[in-house]
């Protein structure tokens, strides 16, 4: 297991060595407090609305099959290279920084930030998700109300030549591939209303312990994955509705060492908009 998902003690010992990104809303960051040294990058600031995604499609990183990675419909998609550059520069973050992200929702919004950073070229080995969230952190660790002052940086976006992103045609082909398992990370009722044919359901929250607000023990997670046929020797292709929830599952599977992960950024929003077939029921 890697240090992609890191415990609070790991972070507390490195407060002076890492850049901490709080992805909660500004009112939470300012009014409730935050991890010392954190900078606030609210979730809404790094997801594109429909028009932004359409305007910036050419700047989005592409998938390994050459598919367009940036979806052009729905909420929660990649913000565009220029927008992300400005966000990171304003936060005083450089491309060389080691980043720890957190939220107060079991890590799902923080994971989306980390996935976005990785797709725009930040070294994945320098991106970490706090195991747990702010509510868990403040039970045993110091919080701050003052805002740390960082000078503006000149963040450089440099998307890698290959990313885990796949487009809609690659997803359709994967539904007939015995070496690929297509995973729907939404809730059960959503899955029953309609899902990509052949997909298996894995609600992202199943991997989270509600009491600790962090990940379940590794053996419990592996048991759940094994039950669904989500094995390390398979190519695992993830989707949800708008690519938020798959970000958490993607991060957890990377943490567990799964070697072949595919990320359908368009997710079910794009799939339905394109008129593709859906299966219903459990």
Automatic annotation (TrEMBL):
<keyword id="KW-0677">Repeat</keyword>
<feature type="domain" description="Rhodanese">
    <location>
        <begin position="176"/>
        <end position="280"/>
    </location>
</feature>
<feature type="compositionally biased region" description="Gly residues">
    <location>
        <begin position="63"/>
        <end position="73"/>
    </location>
</feature>
<protein>
    <submittedName>
        <fullName>Rhodanese domain protein</fullName>
    </submittedName>
</protein>
<dbReference type="Pfam" id="PF00581">
    <property type="entry name" value="Rhodanese"/>
</dbReference>
<dbReference type="InterPro" id="IPR001307">
    <property type="entry name" value="Thiosulphate_STrfase_CS"/>
</dbReference>
<dbReference type="InterPro" id="IPR001763">
    <property type="entry name" value="Rhodanese-like_dom"/>
</dbReference>
<dbReference type="InterPro" id="IPR051126">
    <property type="entry name" value="Thiosulfate_sulfurtransferase"/>
</dbReference>
<dbReference type="InterPro" id="IPR036873">
    <property type="entry name" value="Rhodanese-like_dom_sf"/>
</dbReference>
<feature type="domain" description="Rhodanese">
    <location>
        <begin position="14"/>
        <end position="146"/>
    </location>
</feature>
<feature type="region of interest" description="Disordered">
    <location>
        <begin position="50"/>
        <end position="77"/>
    </location>
</feature>
<dbReference type="GO" id="GO:0004792">
    <property type="term" value="F:thiosulfate-cyanide sulfurtransferase activity"/>
</dbReference>
């Amino acid at each position: 297991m890697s240090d992609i998902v890191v415990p609070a003690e790991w972070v507390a010992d490195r407060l002076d060595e890492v850049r901490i990104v709080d992805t909660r809303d500004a009112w939470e960051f300012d009014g409730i407090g935050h991890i010392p040294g954190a900078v606030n990058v609210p979730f809404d600031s790094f997801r594109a609305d429909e028009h932004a995604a359409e305007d910036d499609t050419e700047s989005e990183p592409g998938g390994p099959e050459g598919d367009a990675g940036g979806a052009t419909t729905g909420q929660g998609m990649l913000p565009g290279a220029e927008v992300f550059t400005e966000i990171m520069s304003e936060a005083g973050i450089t491309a060389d920084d080691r980043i720890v992200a957190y939220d107060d929702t079991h890590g799902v919004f923080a994971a989306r930030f980390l996935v976005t950073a990785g797709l725009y070229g930040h070294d994945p080995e320098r991106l970490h998700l706090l195991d747990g969230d702010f509510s868990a952190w403040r039970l045993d660790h110091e919080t701050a109300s003052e805002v740390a002052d960082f000078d503006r940086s000149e963040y450089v976006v440099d998307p890698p030549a290959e990313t885990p992103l796949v487009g809609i045609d690659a997803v359709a082909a994967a539904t007939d591939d015995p070496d690929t398992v297509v995973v729907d990370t939404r809730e059960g009722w959503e899955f029953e209303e309609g899902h990509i044919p052949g997909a298996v359901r894995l609600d992202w929250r199943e991997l989270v312990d509600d009491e600790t607000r962090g990940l379940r023990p590794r053996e419990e997670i592996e048991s759940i994955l094994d039950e669904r046929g989500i094995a390390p020797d398979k190519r695992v292709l993830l989707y949800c509705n708008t690519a938020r929830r798959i970000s958490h599952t993607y991060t957890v599977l990377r943490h567990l060492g799964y070697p072949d992960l595919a990320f359908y950024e368009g997710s079910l929003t794009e799939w339905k908009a394109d008129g593709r077939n859906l299966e219903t029921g459990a």
